[in-house]
Amino acid sequence: MDFAFFLIQLLNGLQYGLLLFLVASGLTLVFGIMGIINLAHGSFYMVGAYLAWSLSSMTDSLVAAILLAVPLTVILGMALERLLFRHLYQRDHLYQVLLTYGLILVFEELRSIIWGDDVHGVAVPALLNASIPLTDNLSYPVYRLAISGVCMLLAAGLYFLIQKTRLGMMIRAGASNRDMVQSLGIDIKLIYTLVFALGVALAAFAGMINAPLSSVTPNMGSQVLIICFVVVVIGGIGSVKGAMAASLMIGLAETFGQVLVPEVAGMIVYVLMAIVLVWRPEGLFGKA
Amino acid sequence: MNSRLTKFLPWLVVGLLALFPLMESTFYLQLLTKVLIMAIFAMSLDLLVGYTGLVSFGHAAYFGLAGYALALLAPKYETVSLWWSFPASIAICALFALITGMLVLRTRGIYFIMVTLAFAQMLFFVFHDTKLGGGSDGIYIYAKPTMKLGEMELVNLEKLEQFYWLVLFLMAATYMLLHRVLGSSFGRALLGIKVNEHRMRALGFPVFRYQLASFTLSGALAGIAGYLAAVQYGFVNPEILSWHQSGAVLMMVILGGMGTLHGAVIGAFAFVLLQEVLSNQAWFGIAAKHWQLAMGMLIMLVALYLPQGLAGLMQRFGRKPVAEAADD
Questions:
Q1: The model's pTM
Q2: In this complex, which of A102, A233, A281 lies closest to B297 when CB atoms are compared?
Q3: Which residues of B touch A87 (CB under 8 A)?
Q4: To which H or E segment does residue B38 belong?
Q5: A251, A230, A263: which is closest to A28 by C-alpha?
Q6: Options 2.60.40, 1.10.3470, 3.30.1450, 1.10.10; which CATH number does A3-119+139-279 get?
Q7: Which chain A residues are closer than 8 Å to B130 by Cβ?
Q8: FRET partner for B157 with CA separation of 20 to 30 A, picked from A28, A143, A201, B177?
Q9: Is the complex ipTM more than 0.95?
């Protein structure tokens, strides 16, 4: 493997990892703060990709489609939290699994009714449709670099929001003691709604920006969900830092696995998870 | 209900079910066979969810693995004897459950749910992505296994009603086995672990070993169902170990009312029949194509409003108050 080839795989792995982080961070926040297991999180990723496809074919611009779609997904997230998830906070995980499993079926069928079962492609925005030449016959697409950049900006924003702002302080306090925060006069219900909507929007946004790279397919939601579960298990529930570390680890492991040992590439992430379970069952950054 | 009736009711039900082939309806006989296989599957999961307090979302792994074991153990165009292929398939499931159990039981709660799902998905990708089990197309099982006693054909699995009786027998046997196990001191200890793990540990019970035993037994019993399902359909493909299968069986357990063995059986009946009704094109026309929409909504309604399942619903309308034990 020469250096240029290695560099391309490295960048691909990082880009994939950063994208995973967008989906997994919402999942881990909802786990950590509300104590909810949400199987339907992958569906939000799928909804994002399909919105990007249908809106960009209407407006002829992916950027316009994303600007239109993100507010829609925030509204979707708030509505779902108000109507469904709110009733599950005090319930056993079993019922959360069941409800969100039902929700997956509903999302899948609605997708089938509204958008059909075909595989679609989304065009890379013209402005970013270029490649940086590395050697005579190897080059790296600008769009992938742009995605990585956007993901890093969002990750930094998320870190700032949670660690440095007043809202973030309330979120962290709500995660450790819901009743105490409420009796201090903070509207915890509103905070939960916001956090949930943030998670939905992040997952959907990941689906939107990734639409030009991977085709928009019916079962994309469940694939990303399972990988994100692995990310959360490795990183530790509720830890955004852990989600970042685990996402990059999985992204690199899977990308290099596919190049070096393609036969067993699908297994690598699960082997990683098994190792972490034996070594640190609470995850790399989880609280024991 | 008085205790004498409760004691004989299961036998009465099995007796009535045994007479069903007299109806001579191929379609309903096959459907009922499927229901009974799913009942075995649901009971195996109920042992984990309802009696040990472990919510597994990857139970299809053991179900599917047994099917693949049969398909891979059988020679391609010849028959295989059930006498060794059946125990061998179950043993493979038990072994896989033992190994995965040692890993997943290091976690609890949400983690446990995610990790069981992830391991099931790993198995899914092994069969989906490699040529081992024919990839996404799966493998056909051209000839049904044989059950011979010396030269005599004991049960002919090609005959629908004989296969049905075998399935019914194994369903009743599973029910009895679990009934015995749960009534034993081992079963009482499992319930104790479900209610309060720390207390049981403090009392000196080797909690991990009890859970692992339960997990392994549950995987083996799911294997019985998976083997029978593979025999019935005549093929296996990765779908049988997909997470939709895991979700469906969890739904059966909860729909019937978890923590009651007959509830798992009722849940399997209700779920399979519901699936059949909702996807009936003659009744629902174009909507039948999207039957999963109605199913998804029903599942959500059960999760929100019927946490005790159908068994709980029946009790609510009966004279007895709902047992408090099921509330934790």
A1: 0.87
A2: A102
A3: 304
A4: helix B26-49
A5: A230
A6: 1.10.3470
A7: 263
A8: B177
A9: no
